[in-house]
Specification:
This protein is mostly helical. The protein has 4 helices and 4 strands. The chain has one domain. The chain is 48% helix and 8% strand.
């Protein structure tokens, strides 16, 4: 990736973040590479939520999304969600893969 491509990627990521979409990157090369440096310099790393949003697999990204959903729900409601992602009164709370979510 060259600086021009990094700038285009930054604009794409910015558009997603402005729309409220979480962004994760999977299987990115080592933090010692030029690709990582460009992502830091352009602000992409901070824009998407820091290094924790660079993961090894799509499954890890999905798991982190569910965890963040759970944390946001608990913060907004002042309650701890059940271990299965439900609350007895309202039913499912987390978006499930392939179901379109709630």
């Amino acid at each position: 990736m060259d600086p021009a491509a990094a700038q285009v990627l930054q604009e794409i990521v910015s558009g997603y973040r402005d729309s409220g979409v979480r962004v994760f990157f999977c299987r990115l090369p080592s933090r010692k590479t030029e690709v990582w440096r460009l992502m830091e310099v352009t602000g992409i790393v901070d824009m998407i939520g820091g290094p924790s949003h660079f993961v090894r697999s799509v499954q890890e990204a999905l798991d982190l999304t569910e965890l963040e959903d759970r944390m946001e729900w608990e913060s907004a409601n002042g309650e701890v969600m059940g271990g299965d992602g439900t609350d007895e009164e309202n039913g499912p709370l987390l978006r499930r893969r392939g179901t379109g979510g709630v």
